[in-house]
Amino acid sequence: MAAVKADVLVLGAGIVGVSAALHLQKRGRDVILVDRHEGAGEETSYGNAGLIECASVFPYVFPYDLRQVLRYALNRSAEAHYRFRDLPAFLPWLLRYALASSPERAFRSAMAALPLISRSLVEHEALIAEAGVPHLLRRTGWIKLFRSNATLDKGVADLERARRYGVEAEVLDNHEIAAREPDLSGTFAGAIHWPAPGFVPDPGALTKAYAALFVRRGGRFIEADARTLTRRDAAWRVDGPNGALAGREAVIALGPWSDDVFRPLGYDMPLGIKRGYHLHLAPRGNAVLNHPVLDSDRGYLLAPMNRGIRLTTGAEFARRDAPPSPVQIERTLPIARKLFPLGQAIDAAPWMGRRPCMPDMLPVIGKAARHAGLWFDFGHQHHGLTLGPVTGRLLAEMMTGEEPLADPKPFSPGRFG
Q1: First-residue to last-residue Cα distance in the chain
Q2: 8 A C-beta contact, residue 151 and residue 192
């Protein structure tokens, strides 16, 4: 049976892969989008806080505060949790992450990502308009609550640092918090309202809307196993449902599963996984949450999703495919109920997702060194939703010989040796 041919095979239909497929399509490439699921956005892209973080200048770094490290080491923080039995699997990556989190190295990573972060909302707005789904973007920003003067002071210091790069936000007292979120309960040292970031009340639906736009414009979405990728007869091939899928070029955009494909091809990149959980709950009575709200001292976030109030957790360090262990949901849910009037759970069980992370907090975007026509686009850490469209554009510009919107060198696959 003859192969189904295209210019490019994009492997992975999360927000990153779908965005890359759309931008390649815009530049005249015939693209087949490949995923193991029948629909787009069924994995990592489904579960997140829904924030397009155009104001997030500085990345999530490994803490250098010894008290905080001790809390993490003793598993006493809901913000970060680890499975002791999986320690040998993730400890080498964690050590590289700690080294990359030094002030100098973290600053270099932040400045490399800044051109992408600053354009993230603009690129989403363009695709949202083209996909015809304006209802999936709210311009509310989000609120970060602080329960102590010490954490508020640190938050304000971080804000002042970000203001040097064009970020604006408002520091709120308790009266101002109540004016914006009248159904929150508690006394706080203060809060910061970040107005610029966009909020997506259904991230999975947004990814599906982008995929539908890709198909309407003539793209093909085919369910297949990306792990079958091979190079043969000057083409990249994947086993499809009715024979081979073939493309002159292939893009690995499989998020936390990218190493299932790049490692057999001989590439050794330090892809780590931070797992996370969410649970949807109904608000009680007429309670309304107007913004995503991060309870920063307690390590969880509440977001007003279309499905209900989404309680999201921090990072869990464990093997990618280890059984779920939603300890962080169990710890934070009673605290969240005191903050906001939450009713019954809508989900039968907490959902678990996997964030693909590189130790230097930058994605991998660029050409493979040893294989013609092979490209990488993965490792977007906590910012997959934020960066998907803008990194899709950067990759497409690189693949088609356009002037790239940002310097691609910091994202090079070759930076790991």
Answers
A1: 40
A2: no
Q: Token pair for residue 241?
A: 């449902």
Please state, as a whole number, how many other Cβ atoms lie within 10 Å of the Cβ of residue 30. 15
Positive or negative torsion for Cα 210, 215, 220, 223? positive
pLDDT tens for 72-111 read: 888 888 889 999 999 999 999 999 999 999 999 999 999 9
**Cβ of 123: how many Cβ atoms within 10 Å?**
24
Can you tell me the distance from the alpha carbon of 183 to that of 290, in angstroms, rounded to the nearest whole number? 9
What's the rounded Cα separation, in Å, for the pair 395 and 104? 27
Using the CB atoms, write b or e for 59-98: b if 16+ within 10 Å: bbbbbeeeeeeebbeeeebbbbbbbeebeebbeebeebbe
Which two structure tokens, joined as six digits, stand for 395? 């990759």
- Give the model's pLDDT for residue 221: 98
User: Mean pLDDT across the stretch 166-193?
Assistant: 97
- Whole-number Å distance between alpha carbons of 171 and 153: 11
Between CA 347 and CA 290, with CA 387 as vertex, the angle to 5 degrees is 50
Report how far Cα 153 is from the mean position of its chain's Cα atoms. 27
Helix H or strand E segment including 295? strand 293-295
